[in-house]
Amino acid sequence: MKKDGLPEKARAIIDGLKLSHNCQYDEKDSIGKRYRRQDAIGTPYCITVDHDTMTNDTVTIRDRDTMQQERVAIADLDRIVSEKVDLRKLLKEL
C-alpha cells in the first residue's frame, strides 16, 4: 500500500539491506501479484511490510520454494537473510 508510512518504512528497510544483498522494491499491484512476479524472476525470499510492521517492527519473509512465511524482527532481518542465502550453508545441505 502506498500510504500510512508503509513506503517510507519499506524504503528504510531496503536501504539497510541493499549494501549486503541484491534487493528489489515493488509496491505495484496486490501482494499476490507481487509474489508471483518475484517468483517468476527467481527471487528466493520476499519481505513484506504491512500495518503490523508499523506497530511492532516486524516483517514477513516468504520463501519462494516452500511458500512458507515467518514473521521476524526488522533488527534481525539482515542476519536472517544472510543465513538463508549463505552459499556455504546451502552446499553443506546437499
Describe this protein's structure.
Strand 2 (58-63) and strand 3 (69-73) form a beta hairpin. The chain is of the alpha+beta class. It has helices at residues 6-17, 31-41, 51-56, 77-84, 87-92; strands spanning 45-48, 58-63, 69-73. The mean pLDDT is 90. A 3-stranded antiparallel sheet has the order 1-2-3. It contains 5 helices and 3 strands, in the order ααβαββαα. It has one domain (6-92): 3-Layer(aba) Sandwich (Rossmann fold). The chain is globular and about 45 Å long.
Secondary structure layout:
Blueprint: H1 6-17, H2 31-41, E1 45-48, H3 51-56, E2 58-63, E3 69-73, H4 77-84, H5 87-92
Antiparallel strand pairs: 1-2, 2-3
List its salient traits.
single chain, 94 residues, alpha+beta, three-stranded antiparallel sheet
* H-E string: HHEHEEHH
Say what the CATH topology is.
Answer: Rossmann fold
Number of strands: 3
Architecture, CATH level 2?
A: 3-Layer(aba) Sandwich
Major sheet size, sense and barrel closure: 3 strands, antiparallel
- Radius of gyration, in Å, reads 13 Å
Q: What is the percent of helical residues?
A: 40-55%
Proportion in β-strands: 15-25%
Query: How many individual helices?
Result: 5
The overall pLDDT average reads 90
> Which parts are unreliable, with pLDDT below 50 for 5 consecutive residues or more?
none
Shape: globular
* Annotated CATH homologous superfamily: Anticodon-binding domain
Strand order of the largest sheet: 1-2-3
State the name of the first-level CATH class. Alpha Beta
Count of the separate structural domains = 1
Distance separating the two termini:
39 Å
- Name the structural class: alpha+beta
